[in-house]
Fold this protein.
Amino acid sequence: MDEALPYAELGSGWASLRVQKQKVWHMDTAACGRTSHAVRARVAEHLAQEAEEGGYVAEASIAPVFTNARARLGALLGFAAEDVAFTESASTAFVQLLASWPVEKGDTVWAPRSDWGPSLAALVDRGLRVELLDVDSRGALDIEALETRLRHGRPALLHMTAALSHRAVLQPITECLMACSSREVPVILDVAQAAGQFALPEGAAAVYGTGRKFLCGPRGVGYLAVSKAWQPGLHPRAPALAVEAWPGEDRSVRRLESREAFVAGRAGLAVALEEFHQRGPDRIRTRLDAIGRAGRRVLGNVPGWSAADPVDAPGAIISLQADSADADLAAVRADLLRQKVICSVTGTERAPHHMTRTLLRFSPHIDVTLDDLGYVADCLKIASR
């Protein structure tokens, strides 16, 4: 049943690295991916080392591990290793980045109308004036409208969620970067969903995200990266305390790296990144795309539901909209959980200026098969009665 999906051995190999599903169908990678045995073992190993040597000595002893992790992460993000810093989550990374970015209260920033709601709130909390950019019906940035707008104005920065969390939309990142580069507008990308799921171009002023989604690292580890051109303008503030007291940190971005941190989780993310690169990012992304297409075809044909995106939309996110506006999606999800199918309900707060209705979201990783998708479709039929 898996012949139609590419790299079947890649999927089975990915599954073998993890706890066998034992009648649990995990379709929620966009929330939190499943960590491997090796990732969890590395976390436990470092915690044991901290218990023996103390946290600081234990951290210093694995400095080369973090250097390699930054290099692997940078390769996925389009940045050099020395431009990458670790934080606790995508949210803390963005708040810390905004606190340090050379903008003043009252400055105007732009963001697509479909952008992640909490990110828009963070921009407002920083005292910035947010102007929303035009998008199409699915939430993709209108590049022609952006170019027209750039001819008449220039924001302090443009923020964009590279891949939407509530549906299968990859923003036109390259075109956006090209348009903004001509006007020297820095672009900051939220790559929480994009990293691991899509190839990312170089050229952003900064990116940030979390390791727990398609990279399948532990929870509690985020990251940010800032281009060399923009690092001199950074002004680290709390919680990056005593930033001048740490020797050897000549890169401003590294002074944004939190010191009191889940270091064992960072060691675990290093293993997850190694596993990801060993299996080939391009092959992983190709299989994710194929699973997404198959999932939209299979699940989108369940009576009472339709796919929110075209079958050939990019990536592995499969969002369904109920035919009935009165459908209780939370109840449907609860019923699916009772059947051991794990998925999410995505409310309009995720994109408050664009979403008009709640969606049911499935987000498989490469270990999912066509048989799995068929079983989930059967469970959805039961949950929808």
